[in-house]
Specification:
This protein has 146 residues and is an all-alpha fold. 86% of the residues lie in helices and 0% in strands. The radius of gyration is 54 Å and the shape is rod-shaped.
Amino acid sequence: MTILLSVIALLVGAIVGWVIASARKTGAIQRALAERDLARAERERSEAVSVEARRLANLESQARVAAETQASFLGDARKQMEEAFAATAQKTLATISTSFLELNKAHLMDGLRKLCGGHHYSLFGRLIRSLEWINLPSTSPRAPST
């Protein structure tokens, strides 16, 4: 009977040891599973942050390209406007200058003719003839008559 009790005690000890080892193993497994779940959650969170960072970088890159394109377009438009304004101002100034010179020449000639009284050989007559050959940019120059 002692042998039987020894075998039963041995079996009970083995079962109790197995249960205790299983309980410890279950705690370790649960900790490992919890750590695995935390690692997965952290990886998913870091992937989400990475995806968001790439999306923001792409948006900033697109915004930069759009701003550079717009700046280039505005620079070209400004240059074209400056060139057009300069050309228009130059044409206007030439037109106004020509008109002013023609008007002044006409007034001067009329005044000298009235002052001269039709005498072409006097000092004023020679001045009138010398002014008649002065041409404005729109006409071709004539040689003075003597």
